[in-house]
């Protein structure tokens, strides 16, 4: 195919995606609304896309870029003279490495554990699964959704290698009491990681309690640049308070006849493109620019949260302190509200009930939402009214009971195919219905392990090439 035809086909495919600019997709994407930023990032990415971060001695430009980016993160997030770090592919990799480094630094612990609040990001459960670490999950306070420092401290044992706090937690946008949690970890001689992946580039400009490396006992912190640093996807930073703490993160192997493998992250070959793009965006926006973007996003969040709280039929969960929030329904089905919002051009993210948190809708607010709060809130009120009039999705109680009774370990292909049909889902490119309330209702009826299994099967359906 000719190059122009290839790009035209790609553009046509992209036409079916949620919008990544304009503030109407309130999850997954982060929009600064700054003109020219995408072009700058794309140009910087192109300049370094063919360079391989596997060997910094062969490509010293990437070494300089990474040290610059880590230094910028350390300055912003309370790092001292000995603070070091690494640029990773995203928040999940940063969290994985924090767990891996904590585990490998304690080889004498036969059955290592990590202590985390139930609101901690699922990346830590992924890390526990990958690295053979037991996740000790501690209930949070039922109304604030913040971690309970006393309960966290009580969960620390001689097998604990890492304690985790969130700043903020993704689901509700609240900040855990980091100082108290870090103090308990420090008293026990255990590392403490702060997951600031989503809030790290915003919270330094907000009036919140200290949460970063300046807090005694905090030994590592993760912050994503492709979130509120508004860099392209594929860049996060994992900071360690010292080189000694970082050492266990590195991997080296001379146990083969090729070059001695030496990796600072989970990847070996790494394109220099995402790093160069992040470096360029950070330098272009600068500290004052980020202060302004954070102020705009925070103010927009406050206006939206206040408007949601004033909307009949809705309630805000907890007290959001950053740019994230979640709201539940009082007399409306939130899954239907989500469909009604999508019909009006907005994407809000459904979240299922878990522990003290009921089924709800999550929003991630960015600087691009500044000035558009009234439009969002007006459509939300209309969506709530429409959802109230429509009532819950028409899913038969026998189908819900069938789902609730399924055995995740014994689920058959025939059962799953029947569920797809019951939910009005097809196959191939048409697998997803226009409205997802019925699907979400069925998933909500499933126990967590069953929901995991159902979604794994669904992912397999999605990622099946057409013949």
Question: What's the structural blueprint in terms of helices and strands?
Answer:
Layout: H1 3-14, H2 37-48, H3 60-76, E1 84-88, H4 91-104, E2 113-117, H5 123-131, E3 134-138, H6 149-155, E4 160-166, H7 178-187, E5 191-195, E6 220-224, E7 236-240, H8 243-246, E8 251-253, E9 261-263, H9 273-309, E10 314-316, E11 324-329, H10 334-343, E12 349-351, E13 360-364, H11 373-390, H12 397-405, H13 413-422, H14 437-445, H15 448-462
Parallel strand pairs: 2-3, 2-4, 4-5, 5-6
Antiparallel strand pairs: 1-7, 6-7, 8-9, 10-11, 11-13, 12-13
Helix pairs in contact: 2-9, 3-9, 4-5, 6-7, 9-11, 10-11, 10-14, 12-14
Cofactor: pyridoxal 5'-phosphate
Keywords: Lyase, Pyridoxal phosphate
Protein name: Pyridoxal phosphate-dependent decarboxylase family protein
How would you describe the overall organization of this protein?
With 467 residues, this protein is α/β, with parallel strands linked by helices. Among the domains are: 41-282, Aspartate Aminotransferase, domain 2; 397-462, no CATH class. It is built from 15 helices and 13 strands. The strands form 3 sheets. A 7-stranded mixed beta sheet has the order 1-7-6-5-4-2-3, sandwiched between helices. Strands 10-11-13-12 form a 4-stranded antiparallel beta sheet, covered by helices on one side. A two-stranded antiparallel ribbon has the order 8-9. A hairpin with an 8-residue loop joins strand 12 and strand 13. The longest helix is centred in the middle third of the chain and has 37 residues, at 273-309. It starts with a helix and ends in a 5-residue tail after the last helix. The mean pLDDT is 95.
């Amino acid at each position: 195919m000719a190059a122009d035809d290839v790009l035209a086909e790609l553009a046509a495919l992209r036409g079916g995606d949620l919008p990544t600019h304009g503030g109407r997709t309130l999850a997954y994407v982060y929009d600064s609304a700054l003109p020219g930023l995408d072009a700058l990032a794309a140009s910087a990415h192109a300049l370094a896309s063919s360079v391989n971060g596997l060997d910094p001695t062969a490509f010293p430009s990437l070494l300089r870029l990474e040290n610059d980016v880590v230094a910028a993160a350390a300055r912003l997030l309370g790092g001292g003279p000995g603070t070091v770090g690494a640029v990773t592919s995203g928040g999940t990799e940063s969290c994985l490495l924090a767990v891996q480094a904590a585990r490998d630094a304690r080889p004498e612990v036969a059955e290592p554990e990590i202590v985390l609040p139930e609101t901690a990001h699922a990346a830590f459960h992924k890390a526990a699964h990958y690295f053979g670490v037991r996740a000790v999950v501690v209930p949070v306070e039922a109304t604030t959704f913040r971690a309970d420092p006393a309960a966290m401290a009580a969960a620390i044992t001689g097998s604990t290698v890492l304690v985790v706090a969130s700043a903020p937690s993704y689901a509700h946008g609240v900040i855990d009491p980091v100082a108290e949690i870090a103090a308990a970890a420090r008293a026990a001689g255990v590392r403490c990681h702060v997951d600031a992946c989503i809030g790290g580039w915003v919270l330094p400009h907000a009036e919140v309690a200290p949460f970063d490396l300046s807090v005694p006992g905090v030994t590592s912190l993760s912050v994503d640049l492709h979130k509120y640093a508004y860099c392209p996807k594929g860049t996060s930073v994992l900071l360690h308070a010292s080189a000694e703490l970082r050492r266990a993160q590195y991997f080296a192997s001379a146990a083969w006849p090729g070059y001695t493998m030496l990796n600072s992250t989970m990847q070996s070959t790494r394109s220099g493109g995402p790093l160069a793009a992040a470096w360029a965006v950070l330098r272009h926006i600068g500290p004052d620019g980020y202060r302004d973007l954070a102020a705009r996003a925070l103010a927009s969040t406050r206006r939206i949260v206040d408007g949601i709280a004033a909307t009949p039929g809705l309630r805000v969960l907890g007290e959001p302190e950053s740019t994230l929030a979640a709201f539940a329904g009082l007399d409306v089905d939130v899954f239907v509200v989500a469909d009604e919002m999508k019909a009006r051009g907005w994407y809000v993210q459904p979240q299922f009930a878990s522990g003290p948190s009921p089924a709800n809708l999550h929003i991630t607010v960015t600087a691009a939402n500044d000035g558009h709060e009234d439009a969002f809130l007006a459509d939300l009120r209309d969506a709530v009214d429409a959802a109230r009039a429509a009532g819950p999705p028409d899913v038969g109680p026998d189908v819900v009971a069938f789902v609730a009774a399924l055995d995740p370990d014994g689920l058959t292909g025939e059962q799953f195919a029947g569920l797809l049909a019951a939910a009005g889902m097809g196959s191939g490119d048409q697998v997803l219905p226009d409205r997802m309330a019925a699907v979400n209702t069925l998933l909500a009826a499933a126990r967590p392990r069953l929901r995991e299994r159902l979604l794994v099967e669904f992912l397999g359906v999605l990622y099946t090439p057409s013949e």
